[in-house]
Amino acid sequence: MPQSLVSYSHVLEIVGDIIKVSVPEASTAQGSAVRLGDLAVVEGEGGGQSLAQVIMIDRNRVSLQVFTGTKGLSTNAVTRFLGHPLEVIYSQNILGRVFRGTGEPIDGGPDLSLDPRVEIDGPTVNPMRRVLASKMIRTDVPMIDVFNCLVESQKIPIFSVAGEPYNPFLARVGIQADADIVVFGGLGLVFDDYHFFRTTFENAGVFPRTIMFVNQASDPIVERVLVPDMVLAVAERFAVEEGKRVLVLLTDMTAYADALKEIGISMEQVPSNRGYMGDLYSRLARRYEKACDFRGAGSVTLLTVTTMPGNDVTHPVPDNTGYITEGQYYMHDGVLDPFGSLSRLKQHVIGKVTREDHSQIMNAMIRFYSGARDAEQKQAMAFELSPFDHKLLKFGALFRERFMKIEVAQPLEDALDLCWQTLAECFEPHELLMRQSLVDKYFKQVAQV
């Protein structure tokens, strides 16, 4: 344990994993006040020590969340404040490593205790240091690259429900994305999911550029609320100091919000909507706003999973998230829904850093798929179908098979060519209602093949 600065032994009460300590002067030996977020060491009567973090200060009453729980502690426990907040290891040596929610390695690799550390949960970036998003992150996922591009510095969640394959999809994006570094944060993962992410990154050969921070379901809940801050602190350092294009993956932010709720209840805070604390929006926004394209340096792009309990998009977590982020990917029935998904930054890259036909082909494909959905409804209700309806039905089946399945992996240009090929298999040129110069250049080319 780090060397402490001052100790107190007056524990007022123990509630769950939280202890409340009376600190008459609320100061360290150097005279500076005990600060919110500072670390402390709690020592029980048996000599065992546990790290804790200051989560609330009310005059001379300091509340601390004990990382390993309060089992075995009594009101005779001694609390020693360390005078600094939680820090995370930052160096080139953390690439390809796995850490737990306290920032300590859990992969059995070389010792990192002498490597430099940086504080977590720092302020967001000065707006004057931000650059307007204008660069695309290719993922080789057609439903992203063609229809809702992922842009550097974007913050965007995957809205889904329990049971959907959002974790395999997130892993595929981490493997295929053209980012320099991937920083992964797992929140409340069962062991099978943790093992899946780790083996998937290793088997794909991308583990040397990946850093993992994992809080498993069996780990202390306080570590769950620390993982996003550790992930973002490391990502920001690599972007600013190394000029790297960093992709941050977090799953599942609803577990993060639930952990905040549990801690708030233990602290006897007055709950707001559905039991969540009133500062849920601020807590989420503080993390999401770390996404940034730094002027003269690299970038941090944030892709998260947000599960919706009961598939309710008005649930406080997805509802607050939607006000913060720049769109969302909506996953249900094992696919990304083109109608529920939205990337508000895609207009910064479509047709500018992508091919000239990207905008037109994207709009045409969605228009025809919408028509296919209407034709399927008419068919289900036994209405008579027109010859064009039959063309739409054929197109809808091909669209789902070639583009919507999350297993599909194609470079953007190949996906655009496949879009033209699919249109050529289902429609005549005059039925496309697209710019004639693009039809002459691309449609006729694939039609001849």
Question: What do you see in this structure?
Answer:
It is a single chain. By secondary structure, this protein is α/β, with parallel strands linked by helices. The protein folds into 3 domains: 6-85, Thrombin, subunit H, CATH 2.40.10.170; 89-348, Rossmann fold, CATH 3.40.50; 358-448, no CATH class. Helix content is 34%, strand content 24%. It is built from 11 helices and 21 strands. The strands form 4 sheets. Strands 9, 13, 14, 15, 16, 17, 18, 19, 20 and 21 form a 10-stranded mixed β-sheet that branches. A 7-stranded antiparallel β-sheet has the order 1-7-4-5-6-3-2, with no helix packed on it. Helix 9 packs antiparallel against helix 10 (412-426). The protein is elongated and about 85 Å long.
Q: What does this entry show, briefly?
A:
By secondary structure, the protein is an alpha/beta fold.
Give the secondary structure arrangement, pairings included.
Blueprint lengths: L5 E3 L2 E5 L2 E5 L15 E6 L5 E10 L2 E6 L11 E8 L1 E3 L8 E3 L16 E3 L16 E2 L4 H4 L4 E2 L3 E6 L5 H11 L4 E9 L1 H13 L6 E7 L4 H22 L2 E7 L1 H14 L13 H9 L3 E2 L5 E9 L8 H9 L2 E6 L2 E2 L5 E2 L14 H23 L6 H18 L7 H15 L9 H13 L1
Parallel strand pairs: 9-15, 13-18, 13-19, 14-15, 14-16, 16-18
Antiparallel strand pairs: 1-7, 2-3, 3-6, 4-5, 4-7, 5-6, 8-10, 11-12, 17-18, 19-20, 19-21
Helix pairs in contact: 2-3, 4-5, 6-7, 8-9, 9-10, 10-11
Number of helices: 11
Q: What percent of residues adopt helix (DSSP H or I)?
A: 25-40%
- Return the CATH class of the largest domain: Alpha Beta
- Category by helix and strand content: alpha/beta
Multimerization state: single chain
Shape estimate = elongated
| Total domains | 3
Percent strand = 15-25%
